[in-house]
Amino acid sequence: MSRHIAGPEIERLIQLLARLPGLGPRSARRAALHLVKKKEALLEPLGKAFADAAQNVRVCATCGNIDTSDPCTVCCDATRDSGTLIVVEDVSDLWALERVGSVRAAYHVLGGRLSPLDGVGPEDLNIKQLLTRIEAGGVKEVILALNATVEGQTTAHYITDMLSGFDVRITRLAHGVPVGGELDYLDEGTLAAALQARTAL
Amino acid sequence: MSRHIAGPEIERLIQLLARLPGLGPRSARRAALHLVKKKEALLEPLGKAFADAAQNVRVCATCGNIDTSDPCTVCCDATRDSGTLIVVEDVSDLWALERVGSVRAAYHVLGGRLSPLDGVGPEDLNIKQLLTRIEAGGVKEVILALNATVEGQTTAHYITDMLSGFDVRITRLAHGVPVGGELDYLDEGTLAAALQARTAL
To answer: In terms of DSSP bridges, do strands A141-144 and A169-172 run parallel, antiparallel, or are they unpaired?
Structure first.
């Protein structure tokens, strides 16, 4: 706000809320007002939820996932097939794959992708721990579920090289036409990949 | 999330964040992940900001504004013209008018509008306190900055009736073409009002 029309606590609330992804200055104001109006129902519980999360959040030493326990909820889940390891760049990718729910595998979160321009090298990623897990045995397949970007694919190649000495099957996600997508709107790279990987009907 | 893939503290954070205006389930997940990744920079400060706000938030006994002090920041501002009282439905309207910043007046927040269908009568609004302020003297003009809806205008009429015995000028916001608006897209009611209230060039 240009002038002070609310107390410093509310101004600070707006400032911090505006730093959340998906909230701009306008929606942060709207959210802050909603919060102070619903003190018992929302402001206090959220304050407590924030404090609880801040106290308990940690990085899983096994897979690099961010959770409130270590080992994390996914690593602790005994119903998963620990012989299949899905390598993802980020926790958000793990959450996205879990929403699909079609594979009950273990995960490994790299915490980023190789990016020489941004100064991100192999030692900045959670790759050493990935090798340790595979050396420990039991892993039969590593699914590289990395982004289909140049950096994601560079990272995939690097990991493939590192794992070449191990007796594990290395796979990556298929490229192709998104379900519900129209050919006319697709880029040439995706179309070419979809043609090449065509399947028999 | 369909299955438990994160600890209960994170799941609860997502649930509560999704109840903020402007955040759906998807953006709440994104915000929660952003928060737990930025524990020191965002999660902890926001938790503290929520607790501070929850502890200090109160309704101003003078004007009905929601703030962290009573009297509120606006009522405490000695540079304002206390002879002009802008009556608004909600705190968000007060904030919106303050963003304009063209009038340095005092405010009065009704906390809603008359709505027989929703069971909101005059006694549910902050109208008695408005009369008390005007009886105390010093108010020369009351600007009814209520929404241009049926309920807002009903409320305006009611307040005009209540104030008929006092020696105060009662005004309302002008109707007309929004600045930057195109006539072709405007409703008939607005166009008729704009024609009727036309001004000489």
So the answer is: parallel
Across the interface, whether the CB atoms of B95 and A42 are under 8 A apart is answered: no
Q: pLDDT of chain A along its 201 residues, tens only?
A: 446 778 889 999 999 999 999 898 889 999 999 999 998 999 999 999 999 999 999 999 999 999 999 999 999 999 999 999 999 999 999 999 988 888 899 999 999 999 999 999 999 999 999 999 999 999 999 999 999 999 999 999 999 999 999 999 999 999 999 998 888 888 988 999 889 888 888
CB proximity B27 to A under 8 Å: yes
Residue A186 has which token pair?
Answer: 């697709």
- What type of residue sits at position B153? Q
Q: Which residues numbered 85-144 in A keep a CB inside 8 Å of some CB on B? A: 91-92, 94-95, 98-99, 101
Are A85 and A108 in contact by the 8 Å Cβ rule? The answer is yes
For residue B145, how many other CB atoms are within 10 A of its CB? 22
Question: Which residue's entry shows tokens 């979809």?
Answer: A194
All residues of chain A having their beta carbon less than 8 Å from the beta carbon of residue B95 are 1, 5-6, 29, 33
Query: What domains can you pick out in chain B, each with its CATH number?
Result: 8-56 (1.10.8.420), 66-172 (3.40.1360.10)
ipTM over 0.85: no
Q: Is A150 on the interface with B (CB under 8 A)?
A: no
3-class secondary structure, A171: strand
Q: Mind telling me how many Å the CA of A150 is from chain B's nearest CA? A: 24
Q: How far apart are CA B171 and CA B156, in angstroms?
A: 10
Strands A58-59 and A66-67 turn out to be antiparallel
Of the candidates B166, B36, B73, the residue with the CA atom closest to the CA atom of residue A51: B36
pLDDT in tens, B124-167: 999 999 999 999 999 999 999 999 999 999 999 999 999 999 99
Residue among B109, B18, B33 at smallest CA distance from B72 = B109
